[in-house]
Amino acid sequence: MILCWMTSVDKRQHILFIFLIISTFSLSSCAKRSYQRVYRGSTMGTTYNITIYTGRNTNIDLLQKNTEKILAEINQQMSTYDSTSLISKFNKSKANVGMQIPEDFASVVEKALRIASDTSGIYDPTIGPLVNVWGFGPTSTRHKPSIQDIKKAMSLVGFQKINLTKNNNLYTLSKSIDGVELDLSSIAKGFAVDKISTFLTYEGHQNHLVEIGGEMRSAGNKNGNDWIVGIERPVMNKRSIIRYFALQNTSLATSGNYRNYFEEDKHIYAHTLDPFTGYPAPTTLLSVSVLASSCAMADGLSTALMAMGEEKATQYVTAHNIDALFIVRGEDQFLQTISFGKFKELVKEEE
Prior knowledge:
The chain is α+β, with helices and mostly antiparallel strands and 351 residues long. The chain has a domain at 81-175: ApbE-like superfamily (T-fold), CATH 1.10.3980. The protein has ten helices and 19 strands. It has helices spanning 8-14, 60-78, 86-92, 103-118, 128-133, 147-154, 188-202, 295-308, 310-320, 343-346; strands at residues 3-4, 17-20, 35-43, 46-54, 99-101, 162-167, 170-175, 207-212, 215-219, 227-232, 241-247, 251-256, 261-264, 267-270, 272-273, 285-292, 323-329, 335-339, 348-349. The chain has an eight-stranded antiparallel beta sheet with strand order 3-4-8-9-12-16-17-18.
């Protein structure tokens, strides 16, 4: 089994989504004219971009303030880059000591554990110690670790070591052994996208596109037109679009394996790790994109599929009817796309 883990910064660096925003307005009726409103900022070690089309004057400053309040709350709960966050406190806690957590935090943990169970541990939200020992974590220096360090880190990995319970609407999180850590960076951005999209809909902005670190969710349309998004060609030191398509009232998340690496002693070590050997494992799978109603689930599933490698990922998406797009390295380094489900109809060749 292959396990891939990505931090917030990693996924921003590795996957570039270009969403095309056409700033034209309908002239058919001044009373019904839709106006494009855009606001953006920084969060979770990456950036967010939000576009809405609205038929009424909107206080963008207030909307952005409330958006950033939601993002700050998620960050304070789930960011491993913040030493004062709830997840950081949990990671420092002792075994068998329950910690009460908010509903949002519990929801993300539950989704992560569900994906871990469904994928037989190929996806694992406790992979942090192994990622850290290779230097792909929030505070580590990238280097090839010793065999002893790898074995020690591997002993702390295992989603079964995490226990989440609910009693009288109170959620309690605990670990079975000292040193076990949670890292939700492969799913938290997707959850944040869902949260902001729900907020915008509640505020009356039915037509919007929310993007955080490459994960996105669309609702409605752009003045009657589709939201058009693109997936980056997964090659080092070059940025271009390999596929584009319409994203209609659904979520999209992508994981990649072609920018987050380091070179040591003339060897390249990528961040995709095999939890049974503790070492990076080669794979022809360079990028995985997933469509789902929940961006959190699309986020986690794209990481899981990337971790499986091409053959197992193909079997998994086929068995579970997942809408996915694989970009693989073929012969002579040729890039090939493989579409599943809705992607078969959605994707178009780059002109």
